[in-house]
Amino acid sequence: MLSVINVIGRLGATPRADVTQNGKDYASLNVAASYPKGDGEYGTIWYNCTVWGKQSEYAAKLGKGDMICVIGDFRPRSYEAKDGTTRTSLDVSVSTLRTLQRKDRDDEQAAPKSNKRSAALPAEEPYVDENDFPFG
Q1: pLDDT tens-place string over residues 112-121
Q2: Which residues pair with residue 89 across a beta bridge?
Q3: Whose CA, among 14, 19, 40, 45, lies 20 to 30 Å from 57?
């Protein structure tokens, strides 16, 4: 059974693209998402995301600060840190990756070439396609 998660946040660093020993392309992303703590204050949750296949090529063109949406299989994982404490990593194996907002950069070649739907969005409003609903 899978736990599917939808995360909207900003990239904390430029994605790292690589290839597995079996020849599968992937990219690693660190996504920061905010949550309300109360009294107008916000906290940050970090997600370690892995994008596979063709989407990893697209992910490698993104940069630090870009706002993205990832949907994928969520797997919290406990590990022992170097200081001996037990920590939890929030891992997401990404099935869908969308760019919501690009951070302004001098290098415009990094911009996606065919993401017209996302490029036209104001930052505050998510895209909703009424044709995606199963009811009328």
Answers
A1: 444 444 443 3
A2: 77
A3: 45
